Amino acid sequence: MAFRLNSRSGPLTPVSCPPASVLAVEKSRTLLPHRPLDLRRTFHVTGLKGPNQRVADGGLWRASRTPEGPGTIRLSITAAGELEATAWGRGSEWLLERLPAIVGETDDLAGFRARDDVVRGLLRQARGLRLPAVGAMVEVLIPIILAQKVTGVAAGRSYRRLMARFGESAPGPAGLRLSPDPAVLGALPYYDLHPMGIEKRKADVIGRVCREAVRLQAAVNMDRTTAYAALQAIRGIGPWSSARAMMVVAGDPDAVPVGDYHIPNSVTWALANEPRGTDERMLELLEPYAGQRGRVVRMIEAYAGQAPAYGPKLAPRAFGTQ
């Protein structure tokens, strides 16, 4: 797979970012995807509306703390079907070198076979859906921890508050926020996180993850079994959190978030027309796709919709300041 390096480089014009962000140098590369790529669907699983990621100006923008420093990348598809990637910041080279993995070019469909009409139909709809491997473990884990046992609305509110208070302006012109520095976040006392609507148990888990940031980042390049063991060695990171993280960070096609509030129902509804399911029933239905179960779950989430809603929804929890 070849890259074409563009010769464009130079300082950016200030938009609404502080001087440190404005001085970032723009670098770009172009890639011809080997199969269709739907950026919105692919990156929805990473938090499309978070403070570090958005769709704007005809492209998808994502800011990240890379091993080489902060970076922002903009992705867009040209009329000719090429993927254009432009990056800013000290982490720009890392982002551009990792571009194939980030957009799912390394996501291998060769061994995937649809074994029923439902999955066959989902596969046709999901031609542009990839499993991204963004490679930044701790920044992916933080919003996942915040989403444990609460509604998405409550988790999103806490994440935005956390990013506003302890994050930093990302390089480049998009006005994105970087996830808080793990060294800073790991040293904060609980009372600094409470106003963000973060309960003590989650604050403690975030602290442990941040203090183990180097070891957890190394797990990105480990085999899957070792990586899951490293994640779940952190108290407060279980099968649900580790599967959610590995699907995004490493593009694990077999990652199944056991213990989710909605996914078992969505899977049993899509695959067996059963509106309510358990983890056990979900895993039974996914067994024919062992090795690719996470891909099936992702397609169901993206294209099959949720099971019919019965009874009250999970109630939002009022916590911290409003």
Compact description:
It contains 16 helices and 8 strands.
What is the strand and helix layout of this fold?
Blueprint: E1 4-5, H1 19-22, E2 27-31, H2 39-44, E3 53-56, E4 59-66, E5 69-77, E6 83-88, H3 92-97, H4 99-102, H5 117-125, H6 137-146, H7 152-166, E7 168-169, E8 177-178, H8 182-185, H9 190-193, H10 200-211, H11 213-218, H12 224-232, H13 239-249, H14 263-272, H15 279-286, H16 293-304
Antiparallel strand pairs: 1-2, 2-6, 3-4, 4-5, 5-6, 7-8
Helix pairs in contact: 5-16, 6-7, 6-10, 6-13, 12-13, 14-15, 14-16
Helix percent band? 40-55%
- Poorly predicted ranges (pLDDT <50, ≥5 residues)? 1-23, 318-322
Net shape: globular
Report strand %: 5-15%
Tally the helices. 16
| Neighbour order of strands in the largest sheet | 1-2-6-5-4-3
Order of helices and strands: EHEHEEEEHHHHHEEHHHHHHHHH
Q: Largest beta sheet, briefly?
A: 6 strands, antiparallel
SS class: alpha+beta
Task: Walk me through this protein's architecture.
It is a single chain. The chain is an alpha+beta fold and 322 residues long. Helix content is 40%, strand content 12%. The protein has 16 helices and eight strands. The strands form two sheets. A six-stranded antiparallel beta sheet has the order 1-2-6-5-4-3. A two-stranded antiparallel ribbon has the order 7-8. The longest helix has 15 residues, at 152-166. The protein is globular, with a radius of gyration of 20 Å. The relative contact order is 0.13.
